[in-house]
Structure formats: structure tokens, C-alpha cells
Design a protein that fits this description.
Distance between the termini: 36 Å
Number of helices: 7
Largest sheet: 7 strands, mixed
Shape: globular
Strand order of the largest sheet: 3-2-1-4-5-7-6
Helix content: 25-40%
Structural class: alpha/beta
Strand content: 15-25%
Radius of gyration: 15 Å
């Protein structure tokens, strides 16, 4: 099992150079945000925000508010320094597997899922924070094969392999109605909605 302390230490160490090493595929990110339901007027939860790399995307789409959370104190410090004056943004340091942050229209876990030690606990906790009809999405801006190759290097002790999208859909199914499953050469995404009451 992944030790959460190792994950925190790993990402704290990477935080100062995180933004400089960021590679963005804009069309893929736009597609992920579309599929995740990031749209004008929504309340969004950005899980494992890192230095807040997607926060400008949320804001440019006219969200009502974005709550961004990360387990790494150094990542959070950097994100907070970038968005401290923006009243549409709340940035918190916490474990998304066990902390409640509010009630949201959409929750997105972007480029981070293999680092969570207890996925079922994560989905159970996050699904309780969705509005009826709200959407929970796990996405990566590259292929499953590239993610797994990347994590075999220096991150192997803080990440599991990214499972086939169909397996992730089955893991999420007890918590949300999965209606989007995509895994190709450019991206990976599994997403579902909380059943309306």
C-alpha cells in the first residue's frame, strides 16, 4: 500500500519546479473539462490540484466557485500564492479520501488518480459531496500507457499503475452512474453522475 507520508514528501519536494516542468495539451484539457461538466455557474472541486494548474481553466469557464485541494503543503502554498486575491477560489491542504469540502456540481481528479492509496474510500467520500445529478470524473491528459511508463521511474513508490478504464468504471459504479469511459492515445477518462433523488 502507498504510504500517504511518502506521497506528501514526494510532491513537497517537486513543488518548487512543478510549474516550470508543466506540459499542457490544450485541446485535451478542454475536452476533459467539457466531459467533466466544468461550465458557467457550477461549483467545482479540483482534487489533487497541485500548484493550481487547472484553476485558470475553471475561472475562464465562468464557474461560480472552485475549491481546490491537495495533500502536499508545499503545492498548496504555491497555489495559494497564485490565487490569494481571487474570491472565486478556495485552496485547502487535506486528504480527499477522508475530508468533506462542501457540495459540488462537478468533481475532477486530474492527472493524480494513481497516487491515491484507497480508491474506494476516495469515491465513497467524494460521491457524498455531489449534488444530485453532479458529475465525478477521473482523467489524465495522456494515454494510460504513457502514464504507467512515467510512474515506473522515480514515482514508482508513490503510485499504483493506472488500471484499464473499464476496471475503473467498475470501481466507480457503486457510487456514480458511469456514462463516459474513454482511453485512447491522447487521454484517459472515466466519469459518472450521482443519481437524482
Amino acid at each position: 500500500m502507498i504510504d500517504t507520508r511518502d506521497v506528501i514528501e514526494f510532491f513537497d519536494r517537486l513543488a518548487p519546479t512543478w510549474d516550470a516542468g508543466m506540459v499542457r495539451n490544450e485541446p485535451v484539457i478542454a475536452r476533459i473539462l467539457d466531459m467533466a461538466g466544468v461550465a458557467p455557474g457550477v461549483k467545482a472541486l479540483d482534487v489533487a490540484t497541485g500548484t493550481g494548474v487547472l484553476i485558470p481553466d475553471y475561472l475562464s469557464r465562468g464557474v461560480e466557485h472552485v475549491t481546490a485541494v491537495d495533500i502536499s503543503p508545499r503545492m498548496v502554498e504555491i497555489a495559494q500564492s497564485k490565487f490569494a486575491r481571487d474570491h472565486q477560489v478556495t485552496i485547502l491542504c487535506a486528504d480527499a479520501q477522508e475530508t468533506a469540502f462542501g457540495v459540488f456540481d462537478c468533481i475532477l481528479i486530474y492527472n493524480a488518480f494513481p497516487h491515491f492509496s484507497e480508491p474506494e474510500k476516495l469515491f465513497k467520500n467524494l460521491s457524498r459531496q455531489l449534488k444530485p445529478g453532479g458529475r465525478l470524473t477521473v482523467a489524465h491528459g495522456m494515454s494510460r500507457a504513457r502514464i504507467n511508463d512515467h510512474h515506473r521511474g522515480g514515482a514508482s513508490h508513490v503510485s499504483y499503475g493506472l488500471m484499464p478504464a473499464e476496471d475503473l468504471a467498475a470501481l466507480m459504479a457503486p457510487f456514480v452512474a458511469v456514462d463516459q469511459v474513454l482511453s485512447d492515445d491522447s487521454m484517459y477518462l472515466v466519469s459518472g453522475t450521482l443519481s437524482r433523488l
